[in-house]
Amino acid sequence: MSKFNVISLSLGLLVTISSDGYAKSHASFCFQGHIKESITINKDRKKIYSKLTQGKSNRIFNELITYERLTLLPAAFYDLKAVKYQKKGMDLFCKEFLPLVQTPVPELKIPQETFSFFDWKSHKKKILQAINTQDAEEVKKVSLEALVELKSQPHYYCLTRHFIESIYRFAHFVPLRKSQAAVRGLKDPTKLMFSMMKIQALGFVGSVGLDLKSQPIQESGIPMICAEMPNLLSDIHNKKLDVLKN
């Protein structure tokens, strides 16, 4: 791990520790809570998958958990930014996240589809361009296009799919958050939300890397990193999402 990553991790942990007491009394810091929960679950899943893969999955989970720990630093920043909204009754950066799925033993099933190349760089470019316009509908449109392409590979690219679904989910909540802030006389959080989406899009390089390393294991019927991922769009009612249904 580079010196920069070590410093970032240390700062993230310091901010996290200092905010724990405040979080307990104000039911906030949801982003950090989401990451911490994910780390805890993945530590447990690492043990389960290690037995199923004879230890071959350990390095992948170590990388995933390290990635999540480093995410605690930006998570602390966004959580602190969200506090003033949460004090006024807005659950900003809370409802935008959903917990990982916890199943005792993953169901082993050989994928029926053939693994194929996903042009993530092209989709990343389109998503970032949409984010820069701060047009929530455009972000949803290009994110959905990426998800449609991934529809034919439900057992692969699961972490990247999770990131794209998260971007769509954040874009979906933009109008609501803008309206809630206006009613409360608070600053429009739209710019902050698009900033969060941008970080997720920039994270594709890491998510795709982990997805590609996981592919041989997933191909053998072990749903590593897939079985744990919730459908982040399951509670969003939009007919345009019907295209993702089987």
Q: How would you describe what is shown here?
A:
There is one protein chain. By secondary structure, the protein is mainly α. The protein has one domain (3-244). The protein has 8 helices and no strands. It has helices spanning 3-26, 30-53, 58-86, 120-133, 136-150, 158-184, 190-202, 204-219. α5 (136-150) runs antiparallel to α6. It is globular and about 55 Å long. It starts with a helix and ends in a 27-residue tail after the last helix.
Outline of this structure?
The chain has 246 residues and is mostly helical. The chain is built from eight helices and no strands. The protein has helices at 3-26, 30-53, 58-86, 120-133, 136-150, 158-184, 190-202, 204-219.
Which helices and strands, and how do they pair?
Blueprint lengths: L2 H24 L3 H24 L4 H29 L33 H14 L2 H15 L7 H27 L5 H13 L1 H16 L27
